[in-house]
Amino acid sequence: MTAHPYRDDIPPVESGPRPQWSVMIPTYNNDDYLPRTLTAVLEQALPADEMQIEVVDDCSTAGDAGSLVRKIAGDRVAYFRQPANLGVAQNLSNCIARSRGQLVHLLHGDDFVLPGFYERLGQGFAAAEEIGLAFCRYSYIDQNGTEIDRAPLEQKTPGPLPDRLRRLASEQRICAPSVVVRRTAYERLGGFDRRLRCTEDWEMWVRIAAAFPVWYEPATLACYRMHDAGNTGRNVSSGDDMAYTGKAIDLFADYLPAAIAGDVTRRARETYACAALDMAYSLWQAGDRRAARAQLGVAFRLRRSPRVAARFLQLFGRGLLSWATDRKPGGRTA
């Protein structure tokens, strides 16, 4: 692998005994959620020589993650604190570089896995040596751990995902807690792209899918927590969440075969333009008009098409003009 200006190299592990698994837990100000993350892993952990477990703290400014790890896990879980905040993409790459296992699970400190996750995902890699990435169905949960929704079922039985590039590049179908990657795939392709503050994971999964087969496990075995302090939540008010979505699509367009690249990227842009409109409408109803305008602006930068225009009219209807201009009685603007 040649050096890339925006991706960290992932060097191979030095020779010697290695665990099968590395469960790497990046965290930043997640002390409220980290205990659930840790206990879920420990409940199905293999012996230390078979499973490395390590929390990698991106220089948190609140709480004491190190003390929390020691209280819950003793010396079974290692703890490393970055000397300075690296940001999401580089901290994830550092997690991979610190991993020693054959299979790497990046489990954010506010998410968790369900019983059977490591057993079932491990079966996917054991079934075919060429598999580079395996993922399972997952639940969306709120800050209290209550299920909000569940990811669509990709297929009814475990196995390789057909038409993987078209499916995974058309829409983000994988969330971080649900995916495991063979370390050699990271060694070949490099770390997460530092140009992305959001959707750095989507770009990575498409990059891997372009180089390796993907395995799907239909059982729901992971939980993705949605809350305002999460990385995506922090970027909604500025519209950066969708702006970086567009950037990710631009980046992975180069990985797609020419025969499908144009159609896939158009579909992806249209899907997330409509998602940005939905978010804009929700924010407008909540009274956050500045954030709503930000989402509206990025929606039409992502894609202008009849479908996007129809969604806009459907959402805003007769209130469209007054909302878009935000005019007060007498012609004054807000």
Q: Which properties best describe this structure?
A:
2 domains; alpha/beta; about 325 residues; disordered C terminus; globular; single chain; 10-stranded mixed β-sheet; Spore Coat Polysaccharide Biosynthesis Protein SpsA, Chain A
Task: Describe this protein's structure.
- α5 runs antiparallel to α7, α9 runs antiparallel to α10 and α9 packs parallel to α11.
- The chain has 2 domains: 21-225, Spore Coat Polysaccharide Biosynthesis Protein SpsA, Chain A (Alpha-Beta Complex); 236-325, no CATH class.
- The relative contact order is 0.12.
- The chain is an alpha/beta fold and 334 residues long.
- It is globular, with a radius of gyration of 21 Å.
- The model is unreliable at 327-334 (pLDDT under 50).
- The protein is built from 13 helices and 10 strands.
- Helices cover 43% and strands 16% of the residues.
- Strands 1, 2, 3, 4, 5, 6, 7, 8, 9 and 10 form a 10-stranded mixed β-sheet that branches.
Mean pLDDT: 92
Query: Percent range for helical residues?
Result: 40-55%
Number of E strands: 10
Q: Under the CATH scheme, which architecture of the largest domain would be assigned?
A: Alpha-Beta Complex
Shape: globular
Class from helix and strand fractions: alpha/beta
Supply the CATH class of the largest domain.
Alpha Beta
> Major beta sheet, specifics?
10 strands, mixed
Tell me the domain tally: 2
Report the portion of residues in β strands. 15-25%
Distance between the termini: 54 Å
Provide a count of the helices.
13
